[in-house]
Design brief:
The complex is a heterodimer of chains A (114) and B (111). Chain A is an all-beta fold and 114 residues long. Chain A has no helices and eleven strands. Chain A has strands at 5-7, 10-13, 19-24, 31-38, 42-50, 53-56, 65-71, 74-79, 88-95, 104-105, 109-113. In chain A, the strands form two sheets. In chain A, strands 2, 4, 5, 6, 9, 10 and 11 form a seven-stranded mixed sheet that branches. A four-stranded antiparallel sheet of chain A has the order 1-3-8-7, with no helix packed on it. The mean pLDDT of chain B is 93. Chain B is mainly β and 111 residues long. Helices cover 0% and strands 53% of the residues of chain B. Classes of the chains: A mainly beta (114), B mainly beta (111).
Chain lengths: 114, 111
């Protein structure tokens, strides 16, 4: 298996633009998680899905953020409009049967909003 | 949000030395995991512990889960430069499917 695949690896965009981050989880994993990592706040959970259904989006900062999982092999995290404070590394992770036995993380998307 | 505090925040040691990293919380966790993250990559799972008092060894790394399942430690014997990275603990609460991550310990092993 190729692992969790995220794209793009790096994204630089201007304030106000729409940004879409993509994730392909490991085949057979039934949970998908989106995290954001910054030096100040560490790893923060944004939202997670179980069998393509959003379960907890309480970590999504505000209405500018949205996430979808149209099928078991694809998820997107969208920011519209983007702001400089959204600059961070965004990780997607997947797991089988929840977090109890560990996540497999993707390599992340480094987002810079200027 | 559950708080998992790790100490020390930064650690710089010589190759061959031993070290211990701590992960503490006021919450009880059903499982506790340790990850290592290298620059430009996502965290990679090292171990999962689920029983209070449990000790697991992975080559030169020894992981322990506290008796009350609120804390954990990671001990590295004879550190190598390849051990350099960000070490993260993560706790899972009973009945929950997501993990809370610790604040991280950034380890640098100097040759």
């Amino acid at each position: 298996d190729a692992g969790v695949i995220q794209s793009p690896r790096h994204e630089v965009t201007e304030m106000g633009q729409e940004v879409t981050l993509r994730c392909k989880p490991i085949s057979g994993h039934d949970y998908l998680f989106w995290y954001r990592q910054t030096m100040m706040r560490g790893l923060e959970l944004l939202i997670y899905f179980n069998n393509n259904v959003p379960i907890d989006d309480s970590g999504m900062p505000e209405d500018r953020f949205s996430a979808k999982m149209p099928n078991a092999s694809f998820s997107t995290l969208k920011i519209q409009p983007s702001e400089p404070r959204d600059s961070a590394v965004y990780f997607c992770a997947s797991s089988f049967l929840g977090g109890g036995w560990g996540y497999t993380f993707g390599s992340g998307t480094r987002l810079t909003v200027v | 949000t559950q708080l998992l505090e790790q100490s020390p925040q930064f650690l710089s040691i010589q190759e061959g030395e031993n070290l211990t990293v701590y992960c503490n919380s006021s919450s009880v966790f059903s499982s506790l995991q340790w990850y290592r993250q290298e620059p430009g990559e996502g965290p990679v799972l090292l171990v999962t512990v689920v029983t209070g008092g449990e000790v697991k060894k992975l080559k030169r790394l020894t992981f322990q889960f506290g008796d009350a399942r609120k804390d954990s430690s990671l001990h590295i014997t004879a550190a190598q430069t390849g051990d350099t990275g960000l070490y993260l603990c993560a706790g899972g609460e009973t009945g929950a499917n997501n993990l809370f991550f610790g604040t991280g310990t950034r380890l640098t092993v100097i040759p």
